[in-house]
Every structure is written in structure tokens, then in C-alpha cells.
Amino acid sequence: MAAQVIKPVRKLDERHLARQRWARAAWIYGAMLALAVFFIGPFYVAYLGSLKDNPLEWPFRYSFAQTQPKNWAAAWRLGQLGAGNPWTGGFAPGARIPFQVSYFVEEGQEPQTPMVTVPTRRAGAGLGAIFDEVQAAQYARVSEVQEVGRRSALVGGQPGQIVTYGFTITYEGQGPKAARLPLDIEAPRGQMYHSATLDPNRLERRGRVASWDSAAPGFLGYTFRNYVRVFNEARDPNTGASFFLRWTLNTFLVSLAVVLTTLLFASLAGYALARMYFPGKNYLFAFVVFTMTVPAQAIFISNYLVLRDLGLLGSLWGMVVWSAVGAGAVFIMKQFFESIPREIEEAALIDGASPITTFFRIIIPMATPALGALTILTFQGMWNEFFKAAVVLSGQQTNYTLPLGLSFFRSAYGVAGDWGLMLASAFLSMIPIIILFVVFQRYFVEGVSTSALKG
Amino acid sequence: MLRSQRTEALYALLFLAPFLVHLGVFFVFAFVRTLGFSFTDKTLIGQSYQIVGFANFVQLFQDPRFIAALTHSISFMLIVTLLQTFLALSMAAILNQRLRGITFFRTVYYIPSVLSSAAVTVIAIWFFQKTGFLNTFVGWIGSLAPVLLTFLVIFALAQALQVGWERMRGLPVALTDPALATISLAVGLALTWLLVALGAVVPREAQPPEFTWLTNSDRFLGVPIPLWSIIMLNTFTTIPTLMLIFLAGLQDIPKSIYEAAAIDGASPLQQFFSVTVPMLRPVTFLVITLSLIGTLQMFDQVALMGDAAPLDSIIVLAYYVYNNVFSGEGRVGLASAAAIILAALTFAIVLLQRALGISEKAH
């Protein structure tokens, strides 16, 4: 036998293996973190966008006026000075608002005093514009603009000086409170805006005109400007009531009503399918499973006509009746009832209790975990339901639910490109579901993986 | 039948009554009526109507918009299902570890799929605008390309050198050895940083974005670009759900099979393809079926896009049906015929699944 030269192969020793284990864990955590950024990142940047004055600005900035603590503090203080309200600000009798603005003037140029005006400006582009609101311009008096100081500085490599001007806006006499105090400051040619008590919402004409939506905005009115606008600007043209609040209430009512009907009807039907004997039970169950696969869009036409005949179109009741009980809910309850032991109810039945008494006295109390999960899943499903709302509620704006309301905002504000308001309304509509998810996440995650697997 | 049995059947009927009435009116009656309407020329406003036989179906296949909707629906269904299944399975395989804090991450990943499709679509339309974040991000990657490429080359070189060295010393390390890769990562980051600081590698100047996603009339692989945007959106929001189903399936595979495979010398990749994939077959079938049926129902995203994208580039069957009922005179007959085709597609998928012999309860 010829002697073979075998290359010595050492085994990895314990030290190497431990090192590998640690490194592998580190790579997996890194991958999980990257995935988390992938799934949450888009929402984070959209949230940043919703705070901006122009969410479509390019290049994209992660740090801007609304994220700077300096502006938070200034907005808070100005809101307090304007109307004694540090949160949403305003302009009320007795207000006295000192304001400073600084300009950069290149060397060799003589600084000139800028022009300060409180313009008459309607709110927003879409629905808000049709309302007559109290205009601060009628009551505001701007004091003479005076130079406060100047210092030499280098800006962008250019030598020159920064000149600071100060003025005061006062509310003269008595009158109604104005929601906003719009402000425009126009500087002469050659002077560049540098800084101010509160950073402006817009710079126009190459930085010569600085424009504020409100010089007394309050913390929320400045930082969450678009969110406040969602409530203030979108109003019913007839009653003046806030659309968004109404839609939130509608969505709550519909979701709650459907949760109640689903809990009752689905547990009754699920119990009958799980425990009671009747001819054709298996065929019925197979049919129920089959109906779950048919798209609602394939059969809605008749449902629309039925609801029309019942006079339920445009009404929240139409949504409730159409969604009262779903095959999926019956399926979940059937699975649950099959998993609990028979002995308890049999004892009750032998004692002579009727199936109805047994069901409500003994079965329902035992089913709390399943009913809890069903509540969460149904509530979430109805809160997000778009198709049925689009069929039943179309045209009745006061009866919209939030998803349909968002689509209404999209067409009302999309033309003007008012993305701040659209993004803000999208985030506001998510809040209840996010809270629900954080509190009951176990139900969400387990509900999906178990019910789907068994289905 | 015994008397007691008859009583029980009566009680069962009583318990089932609300559900059966609802199912009867809103499913059985609805389906039969839709089928009936599809052979008539009924409109939403008109009072009387006539039976027209198969005229609606003939008319559908002569309508370019219906052909567009049908092809869009089918390509959307196939592409999304393929992407979702592949990505969800890969993610589940990564996440199937017994590590601290893994439940936290699972919860985080699940967030996009509990949010309402309306809100997510509004955000997505912003994302897909010309100066929206997607183009910003793509532009950022483009301008950083020289730096990223430098890093990748250094990383690969460092890893190759280390693995070569260890093998020369007789240690059987894999090319992807995680411990060595950590060192390569540190070397790569440090050297790239140095090269950028020295000015040897310079990121390119970012250019203002030119590409439009939603108002683009171009096609990619025969599918309009705006529809690709919805494909990306839908894949993004449904991956987490499917991933959780895969995870539940993965955790039911006995550990002993992997141990046996490891003893036989199977590498992690071999284990994945010869143990995980076959053991997961029933779950994969379930995921694919759910995905096929779910994607056929896609409606919300198209409806919310509204005028953000041209309708003919994003229309799908579900929206075609809705649009025909609620626009103009409301052509219920024609819409019903389209609805029947949508339902038939769904039945075909369910039947195909049955025919392939893997029932839903195989797991």
C-alpha cells in the first residue's frame, strides 16, 4: 500500500468555536437591526416629512426648523405672549410680541431697514380657504422697526456684517381672538436673511422675503403645525364642525358595533359548528371555509343594492349590517371551542340546563381569551376597512370613516400638493391602532400565525 | 333520528341562524344575483333590463381597459407572490434563532401590516413622488457608490486573506466565518474612512432626481412603472404577516433532524435546502395560496392613488368592477361579468391547490 500524504487537518478548538458563536450572534443582531430600519425607516422619514413646511423639499433634510429645540422654546414663549396659550398660540387683545430679525449685509453695502407687514392670509389650500376667519391684520399694529445692533461676520466666505432689527406687534383695543398672526418681512436687495426669534416657515424671492404662518404659534402650532391644521382647516362647509374629529368618532362607533355583533354571532355559530350535531354539518363548514376565499369585490354589487333597498346607503348602519359577522370570525371561534374539554358543559347539560343557558353561563366565560383575540382582530379590521366604506358611504362626507376620509383628503389636497396635511392626517389615523398593537401585540402576532396555520 | 338529536339540531339551527341569514343574504344571494346580472344589461339608474346572453363577456374582452386590468391583476398576483414568498422565507430563516430580544424585533417588523392600507398608501404616494424619499435614497446610494464599492472590495480582500491564512495553518474555516468577517468589517470600515479622509475616494455630487414613479408611462418587464410602485408597496406591507406564518412553521420542525444533518456534515446552506425547504412544504403552499388570493383582491391602493397615477397604468380587476358600477350610468351588467371573471380566477386557484393534493390542513 502506497503511503498517502495526508494534510493535517486540525479541528476547530473550543476557543475558536466560542468566538464564532459570539460573532454569529453579533451578525444576526446586525441583520435584525437592518430589517427593523427597513420596516420602520419609511414611516420615520414620512413622519419627519409631516412636520415640515414643505414635505417634498429637495435635498431631504433630517434636521430643520421644526426639529430644533431653539424654535420649540421660542414658539412656546411667543404663544404665551400672543394669547396666553403656549400650546396652540393665537393673537388676542392685550398681546405684545417683541420680535427680532437679523440680516447679513456684504461689506461695502449700507444696511437698510426691512419692511414688516402683517398680511391678510387665508388658511391652507383646500377646504380651509372657504371659511371667513378672524384676520389678525385688522387688529395688529407693528411698531417702528429699529436697529438693535450689528456685528461683523464671515458668511459663506464673504466678509460683511450681521445687522439685527427689532420691533413689537401689539393687539390694539378690544376684539376677537385671531387663530394666527401671519407675518412677512421683506428686506431690500442685497441683504440676506440670517436668523430670527423664530425661524420662518418659508423664504421667498431668494431669501429676501421671510414669511411666517404665525408669529405667535405656540409649541404645537409650530412644531406640529400640519397636525393642528388637520383639525382646524378641514371643516364641514355647512356646520363648520371638524371633519377629522367626526370621522374618528364614526370609525370608533362602527368598529365597536361590529365587534359586539361579531362576538355574539360568531361565538354562537362557532359553538354550534364545534359541538352540536346536525345533518350536513361538515358540508356547511367546508362551505364557510370556501366563502373566506371569495373576494368582497366580486360580490359587492348585490350587497350595494340590498343596502340601497334597506335605505342604509350613506349611513354607518349600512357598514355595521354588511360586516355584522364574518366567516373568518366563526372559523376562529369554532377552532377555539374544539380545543376546550367537553366535560364541563356535559355536566351542565345533564343537570338539565338548556343549551342556551349552558352557552351563556358556562361556555362564554370560558371563552374569554378567544373573545379577546377576536375583539382585537375585528376592531383592527374595521378600523382599517376601506372597500366597504367606499361602497356604502360614498358622497356622505360627514358619515365617512377615517380610511375613506384619507382618500377624500387625497383628492381635496392632492391637487395643491399639500403633503404636510395629508401625511399628518395619515399618522393621526394610525394612533389608535398603534396603541392597541403595543398593548395587545401578543394577540396580533399569535392570531396571525396560529389561525392562518390551522386554516 | 332520535328525539334528543332533533332537539339538538333545532338548537344548532337557532345558534347558527344570525350567521346563516347574513351568509345567505350577503354571500349566497349576492353571488347568485351577480351571476344573474352578468347576463343582463342592467344599469344602476335604469329600472328595467333585458337578458343579453354572453354579450357582456364579449364586450369585456373587446374593452382595452378590461384587458389591461386582467393582465395587471395576473402579473401583480404572480410577481407579488413570488417576491413575498421568497423574501418572507429568507427573513423567517434569519429570525428563527433562540436569541434574547428576538420577540421585540418580531413585534417591530409586524407594525407595517397592522396599519390601515389607506394611511400606508397615502404615505407611499409621498414616498414615490419625484422629490419624495425613495428618489432621495436612490440618489444617496448613487452618490455614495464609489465609497460603498471601495468598502466592499476591501472587505472581500480582508476576508479572503484571513481565510487563506487560517486554512494554510490547517484550520477548516468556512469562507463566511462570522468571527473573521467581523474583523474584515472593522478593517473595511477603517480603511474606507481613511481613503475618504485622504481624498483618494470621493463621493459624487448628488443630482436632483429625474425619475418619476407614478406618472411614468414606461414599462419594466411588460408591467407599467406605476404598478411596480404598488407591487413594492404591497410586498412591503404583507411580508411580515407571511414571515410570521413561516416562523411558526419553522419552529415546528424537530431540532433532531438538523442535528442529524449536521453530524452527516451538511453545511447550514445544505441544511436549509435539504431539511428546511421540504419540511416547510405545506406551510409554503398555504402562504402561496393566501398570497395568490389576497393579491387578486387588491383594491385600496389603486383607489387611493386616484389621480396620482394614470388609471390605465394601475387598474386591476377589483377596481375595474367598482369603477364600472360607480361611474357614468353604472353598468351593473358589465361589472357583474367582470366580477364573475374575478371570482372564477379565485376558484381556479383554490381548485388548483386541491388538485395538487395538498390540503390546507396538511400541516
TrEMBL record, chain A:
<feature type="transmembrane region" description="Helical">
    <location>
        <begin position="252"/>
        <end position="274"/>
    </location>
</feature>
<keyword id="KW-1133">Transmembrane helix</keyword>
<keyword id="KW-0812">Transmembrane</keyword>
<dbReference type="InterPro" id="IPR035906">
    <property type="entry name" value="MetI-like_sf"/>
</dbReference>
<keyword id="KW-1003">Cell membrane</keyword>
<feature type="transmembrane region" description="Helical">
    <location>
        <begin position="362"/>
        <end position="383"/>
    </location>
</feature>
<feature type="domain" description="ABC transmembrane type-1">
    <location>
        <begin position="248"/>
        <end position="440"/>
    </location>
</feature>
<keyword id="KW-0472">Membrane</keyword>
<comment type="similarity">
    <text>Belongs to the binding-protein-dependent transport system permease family.</text>
</comment>
<dbReference type="GO" id="GO:0055085">
    <property type="term" value="P:transmembrane transport"/>
</dbReference>
<dbReference type="InterPro" id="IPR000515">
    <property type="entry name" value="MetI-like"/>
</dbReference>
<dbReference type="Pfam" id="PF00528">
    <property type="entry name" value="BPD_transp_1"/>
</dbReference>
<feature type="transmembrane region" description="Helical">
    <location>
        <begin position="25"/>
        <end position="47"/>
    </location>
</feature>
<feature type="transmembrane region" description="Helical">
    <location>
        <begin position="283"/>
        <end position="306"/>
    </location>
</feature>
<dbReference type="GO" id="GO:0005886">
    <property type="term" value="C:plasma membrane"/>
</dbReference>
<feature type="transmembrane region" description="Helical">
    <location>
        <begin position="419"/>
        <end position="440"/>
    </location>
</feature>
<keyword id="KW-0813">Transport</keyword>
<feature type="transmembrane region" description="Helical">
    <location>
        <begin position="312"/>
        <end position="332"/>
    </location>
</feature>
<protein>
    <submittedName>
        <fullName>ABC transporter permease</fullName>
    </submittedName>
</protein>
TrEMBL record, chain B:
<feature type="transmembrane region" description="Helical">
    <location>
        <begin position="140"/>
        <end position="158"/>
    </location>
</feature>
<keyword id="KW-1003">Cell membrane</keyword>
<feature type="transmembrane region" description="Helical">
    <location>
        <begin position="179"/>
        <end position="203"/>
    </location>
</feature>
<feature type="domain" description="ABC transmembrane type-1">
    <location>
        <begin position="70"/>
        <end position="353"/>
    </location>
</feature>
<dbReference type="GO" id="GO:0005886">
    <property type="term" value="C:plasma membrane"/>
</dbReference>
<dbReference type="InterPro" id="IPR000515">
    <property type="entry name" value="MetI-like"/>
</dbReference>
<feature type="transmembrane region" description="Helical">
    <location>
        <begin position="223"/>
        <end position="248"/>
    </location>
</feature>
<dbReference type="InterPro" id="IPR035906">
    <property type="entry name" value="MetI-like_sf"/>
</dbReference>
<keyword id="KW-0812">Transmembrane</keyword>
<keyword id="KW-0813">Transport</keyword>
<feature type="transmembrane region" description="Helical">
    <location>
        <begin position="302"/>
        <end position="322"/>
    </location>
</feature>
<keyword id="KW-0472">Membrane</keyword>
<feature type="transmembrane region" description="Helical">
    <location>
        <begin position="74"/>
        <end position="95"/>
    </location>
</feature>
<keyword id="KW-1133">Transmembrane helix</keyword>
<protein>
    <submittedName>
        <fullName>ABC transporter permease</fullName>
    </submittedName>
</protein>
<feature type="transmembrane region" description="Helical">
    <location>
        <begin position="12"/>
        <end position="32"/>
    </location>
</feature>
<comment type="similarity">
    <text>Belongs to the binding-protein-dependent transport system permease family.</text>
</comment>
<dbReference type="Pfam" id="PF00528">
    <property type="entry name" value="BPD_transp_1"/>
</dbReference>
<feature type="transmembrane region" description="Helical">
    <location>
        <begin position="334"/>
        <end position="352"/>
    </location>
</feature>
<dbReference type="GO" id="GO:0055085">
    <property type="term" value="P:transmembrane transport"/>
</dbReference>
<dbReference type="InterPro" id="IPR051393">
    <property type="entry name" value="ABC_transporter_permease"/>
</dbReference>
<feature type="transmembrane region" description="Helical">
    <location>
        <begin position="107"/>
        <end position="128"/>
    </location>
</feature>
